[in-house]
Design brief:
Blueprint lengths: L8 H8 L4 E5 L5 E2 L14 E5 L3 E10 L11 E8 L4 E4 L14 E8 L4 E7 L4
Antiparallel strand pairs: 1-2, 1-3, 4-5, 4-7, 5-6, 7-8
Bound molecules: zinc ion.
């Protein structure tokens, strides 16, 4: 389980409230993920935290068959979701069979509560 630190606390606090929060550059509006001090584009150290839509698409994924930790049940997917806002977030897809995952699949965030941290995960987007 990740442990929130000073820089990432708004991300985890947002997740606990069911909101996907991302750091955003005040000067040029570029999103920053993971949270970091300086903007990749303009090097500004000014930022705000804004709520992202929670929607994105599968950019790439892998299916893990090796058990690296006893808590993981194999096989499991490790998926990179490209958010509507642009940043790519490493995650796991839920609610879909591993062999049904496809690049470009629309997904939406869901929040999973663990003992003392809430993590964003993703599932196939519901059709409108
Ligand atoms: Zn910037």
């Amino acid at each position: 389980m990740p442990e929130p630190d000073e820089a990432s606390r708004p991300f985890f606090d947002g997740a606990a409230e069911g909101r996907l929060m991302l750091m955003r550059c005040v000067r040029c509006q570029t999103w920053r993920l993971p949270a970091r001090q300086h903007c990749d584009v303009c090097l500004s150290d000014e930022y705000t935290w804004e709520q992202a839509s929670g929607r994105g698409v599968v950019r790439t994924f892998g299916i893990m068959h090796q058990r690296y930790h006893p808590a993981f049940e194999v096989p499991y997917n490790v998926t990179i979701v490209e958010l509507e806002e642009g940043p790519r977030i490493p995650t796991n897809l839920m609610g879909v069979a591993n062999d049904a995952i496809a690049i470009g699949m629309p997904v939406e965030v869901v929040f999973e509560q663990y003992d003392d941290v809430t993590l964003p995960r993703f599932r196939p987007a519901r059709t409108l």
